[in-house]
Inverse folding.
């Protein structure tokens, strides 16, 4: 267990490559800082869902948020553009193998961590879909607020926003919780 914990500590020093690719300095955000942000946001949102009568397993949400990027300690934080060259299947295989190897000392392949990781990758549960959606939402909100706003808005974020312009902001806000649950 100690070797796994020590290895996971490297996530604190592993930069998120998306920021570097957008011209921001190294150290803008680490993978560990990203996971912490996802975890806090996911916990608060899960609590909000529960208070409104939508049953969400908060412990599962927190576990998913914490472990969703553990494989990156071995394969690095690959940008989405890497998928264009390696293919999404090769990327998934590499990340799954890295995750399995990483947790092999603390979890069997069919154990809790492996099951949570598979759930996250397959988006099988409401909790996994919630955490995945948050990883994207937090990223895009930081892009929007960052000094790279203009650069990002002219690329993929601009395309994302344009595809959503057909739905009014009020309608999106009103159906926000339903959107999270269905996706």
């Amino acid at each position: 267990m100690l070797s796994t914990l020590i290895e996971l500590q490297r996530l604190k020093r592993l930069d998120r490559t998306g920021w570097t690719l957008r011209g921001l300095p190294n150290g803008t955000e680490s993978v560990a800082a990203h996971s912490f942000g996802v975890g806090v946001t996911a916990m608060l949102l899960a609590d909000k869902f529960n208070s409104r009568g939508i049953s969400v397993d908060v412990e599962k949400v927190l576990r998913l948020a914490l472990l969703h990027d553990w494989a990156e300690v071995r394969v690095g934080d690959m940008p989405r553009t890497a998928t264009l060259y390696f293919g999404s299947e090769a990327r998934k295989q590499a990340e799954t193998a890295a995750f399995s190897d990483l947790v092999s000392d603390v979890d069997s392949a069919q154990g809790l961590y492996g099951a949570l990781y598979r759930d996250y990758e397959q988006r099988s549960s409401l909790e996994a879909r919630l955490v995945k959606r948050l990883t994207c939402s937090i990223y895009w909100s930081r892009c929007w607020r960052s000094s790279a706003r203009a650069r990002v808005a002219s690329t993929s974020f601009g395309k994302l926003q344009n595809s959503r312009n057909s739905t009014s902001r009020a309608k999106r806000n009103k159906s926000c919780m339903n959107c999270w649950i269905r996706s």
